[in-house]
Each structure stands twice: as structure tokens, then as C-alpha cells.
């Protein structure tokens, strides 16, 4: 992905364009749900970030990517002003990677037991995000209602 980004950037920069890779916060996906330890990490992380007022879902994170990285200040007219790390990656995982967030997440993961899992981690939030990504647990949808297929 990064190699392709560099090749695209080289080609696009000749006409004033640019290409980047963004590194995003841990999110609930089909893949992240089945990789060992990742659901626990995400659940603990979400709990910490929600308590600190830093949690954002997929849409909020992409809005921040555009508002605070791509379409702000000089970056609008000059792609070289887009803030990146040394590898030209846009780091939108900055809130997740804050020292205080990582320390607290690590401490919770080390302290979690069967008895305190739901207190130290946001298991319900993880479950909701997983279900919602697959069309379930969506606010405002009556899953018990009869549906007339001819009206769809």
C-alpha cells in the first residue's frame, strides 16, 4: 500500500496532485474481530478513549482526516503542506497512540479478568459496532416488523 502510494504520489505530483496512506485508529471490522487479542485491545481502547472524550467512529475519524489534515490551511492549495510522518503517512491514529491512552489501555488489558471484563473494557460497544457493520443493531430499525417484499 505504501509503495503504491509513493508511486502514485510521484506520478500525481507532476500535475499538482498527491497521494498518501492514512494510518487510522483501531476499528471494529470482520478482520479485527477474529485476530487473536485484537477484540480485547479494541474493547479496552474504546473504553479508555470514551472516558477521555477521544473516541470516534469510522465516519468521525474520516471527517477529522479531511478537516484537520487534507482541507486545512496551506494544505488546500499545496499538498506538500499536508502533515505526515517521515514515511509520508497521514497519522489519524494520533489520539489512539497518545502515551496516556496507550498506558491506560495496556494497564487494563493486563488487569482484565472474567469478573471485571465488562467494567474495564467496552465489550458492548465492540459488539454493537460489529453488529452494526453487518446491518444489525442499527438504531431506528424494527427488526421484529413484518416486511412486504413487494415494497422493497
Which features characterize this protein?
mainly alpha, 47% helix, two-stranded parallel sheet, 152 residues
Explain this structure to me?
The protein has 152 residues and is mainly alpha-helical. The chain has one domain (20-136). Helix content is 47%, strand content 4%. Strands 1-2 form a two-stranded parallel ribbon. The model has no long low-confidence stretch (mean pLDDT 95).
**Order of neighbouring strands in the sheet with most strands:** 1-2
Q: What is the count of structural domains?
A: 1
Spans of at least 5 consecutive residues with low confidence: none
Mean pLDDT: 95
Radius of gyration: 19 Å
Fraction of residues in H or I helices: 40-55%
Number of strands: 2
Shape: globular
Largest sheet: 2 strands, parallel
Give the strand content: under 5%
Distance between the termini: 39 Å
Helix vs. strand class? mainly alpha
Q: Note the run of SSEs as H and E.
A: HEHHHEHHH
Tally of helical runs: 7
Amino acid at each position: 500500500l505504501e509503495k503504491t502510494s509513493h508511486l502514485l504520489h510521484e506520478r500525481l505530483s507532476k500535475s499538482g496532485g498527491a497521494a498518501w496512506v492514512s494510518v487510522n485508529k483501531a476499528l471494529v471490522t470482520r478482520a479485527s474481530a477474529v485476530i487473536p487479542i485484537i477484540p480485547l485491545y479494541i474493547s479496552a481502547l474504546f473504553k479508555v478513549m470514551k472516558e477521555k472524550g477521544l473516541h470516534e467512529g469510522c465516519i468521525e475519524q474520516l471527517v477529522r482526516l479531511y478537516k484537520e489534515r487534507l482541507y486545512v490551511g496551506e494544505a488546500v492549495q499545496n499538498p506538500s503542506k499536508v502533515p505526515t510522518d517521515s514515511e509520508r503517512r497521514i497519522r489519524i491514529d494520533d489520539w489512539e497512540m497518545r502515551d496516556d491512552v496507550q498506558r491506560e489501555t495496556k494497564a487494563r488489558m493486563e488487569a482484565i479478568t472474567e469478573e471485571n471484563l465488562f467494567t474495564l473494557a467496552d465489550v458492548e460497544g465492540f459488539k454493537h459496532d460489529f453488529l452494526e457493520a453487518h446491518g444489525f443493531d442499527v438504531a431506528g430499525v424494527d427488526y421484529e416488523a413484518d416486511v412486504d417484499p413487494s415494497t422493497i
